[in-house]
Each structure stands twice: as C-alpha cells, then as structure tokens.
Amino acid sequence: DIQMTQSPSSMSASLGDTVTITCLASQDIGNYLSWYQQKPGKSPKLMIYGATNLEDGVPSRFSGSRSGSDYSLTINSLGYDDEGIYHCHQYYEYPLTFGSGTKLEIK
Amino acid sequence: QVQLKESGPGLVQPSETLSLTCTVSGFSLTSYGVNWVRQPPGKGLEWMGTIWNDGSTDYNSALKSRLSISRDTSKSQVFLKMNSLQTEDTAIYLCARGYPLFDYWGQGVMVTVSS
Fold first, then answer.
1. Which residue in the set B44, B102, B105 is minimally distant from A99, CB to CB?
2. Separation between Cα atoms, residue B106 and residue B7, nearest integer Å
3. pLDDT in tens, chain A (107 residues)
4. Residues on chain B touching A89 (C-beta within 8 angstroms)
5. Less crowded by CB within 10 Å, the N or C end of chain A?
C-alpha cells in the first residue's frame, strides 16, 4: 500500500497568516493527490484534486503544489473558518490511502 | 439536493458483526459509486471499499476477508457488513459518493466496539 506521511500533525496559526501542510508519498503517485478539509463535527470536504486543481467554490486562498513526491497545501490569509483537520489522499492505486491528518487551530 | 445518511448501532460487542446502512437521496445508485470510509478516534481516514454504479465491489485488502458491501437500488440504500469486530474497529463510519474523489459525504456514525 502507498503510505502518505503528512506533517505537521497539528499546528496553530494567527489570523492572516500563511500556512503550509505537506504530504510525502512512499512511491510515485503522479498528480493523483487530493486534499480534504474537515471542520469540527462535520464530514470532509474536497478542496483540491489533481494536486493543484481547486474544487469549484473553494477560495483562491487555498493552493496545492507538488515537488517530486512531496505535495503541499498552502492557505493564505488565514481566517477562523479555516480551522479544522486537513487530509491528503492518494488515488493513484488501490487501496486508496490518506495521510494521518493535520489539525489546524487559529489563534 | 445530494444527501447521504448513515445509520446503525452505536455499540457492538467484540467478535460480533457490524451492520450499517447508508441511505442516499438526490442521485441514483446506478449512476454513482458509493464508498465506506472510517476514522478511528484521533487517527486518519481509511478507505474501506466501494460499490460501483453497476453493483460490483472493491475492497481494501486489509479488510476484504471481513467486509461485505451491498445495495438495494429500489430503496437507495447501501449496506456495510463487517464481521469479527475488535476494539480497533472503533471508529466513525462514513459513506461517501464518487470514486476516486469523494464529492458528497454523510455525517458519519460512531461505532464503539466494547463488551
């Protein structure tokens, strides 16, 4: 199975900050990487797919990038609404696997 | 609008079988696949399996020997059955539409495995 090593596991940032969350794939997954946002007590929401493509309706403050096997989610101009857990997800091959999640707290 | 809602028992005894239902609305099971995903407390998401729009299924190999996913298209329901439950199966169980990207999710149901 493809392992997705996500970091950090948790982070705290202030309003207006820029934060970056990363996932390292254990083998090549091309651009078959998505990011989900999960707000407290809610189900996950698709934010980015194909490593860099924004899902419809997602603010442009969110962006995804790739460098080799490293994938990043960057959030600019943090707001309280961005608080939650962020999950990376590879869909290159079976079984689909997720990172361990990053809990983002807004101070 | 598209909705998915999980239902089932909140408490299951060790070694017993878990049965969950995902009731969908706003789309047809013959047009979209539905997945089961679980989230143990404090841990990441785990894809369990998919029932495709044609009724075929795929399972996570780690769970395949214990897991069965089926559906009733007339009732717009997808079923999960998993046997030989252990405490490590304690998790929130969610159903989600689509493959390999999940565009709509249910709210999830918390299942605790305990005697």
1. B44
2. 10
3. 999 999 999 999 999 999 999 999 999 999 999 999 999 889 999 999 999 999 999 999 999 999 999 999 999 999 999 999 999 999 999 899 999 999 999 99
4. 45
5. C
Contact predicate A32/A90, CB 8 Å: yes
**CB atoms closer than 10 angstroms to residue B7:** 12
In the 3-class helix/strand/coil scheme, how is chain A assigned residue by residue?
CCCEEEECCEEEECCCCCEEEEEEECCCCCCCEEEEEECCCCCCEEEEECCCEECCCCCCCEEEEEECCEEEEEECCCCHHHCEEEEEEECCCCCCEECCCEEEEEC
Name the minimum distance, in Å, from the CA of A18 to any CA of chain B: 24
By Cβ distance, the residue of B44, B94, B101 closest to A49 is B101
Written as six digits, the tokens of A41 are 């007590």
Which CB contacts under 8 angstroms, 24+ apart, belong to A38-42? A38/A84, A38/A85, A38/A86, A38/A87, A38/A101, A39/A83, A39/A84, A40/A83, A40/A84, A42/A84, A42/B107
Q: Which residues in A lie closer than 8 A to residue B96 (C-beta atoms)?
A: 43-44
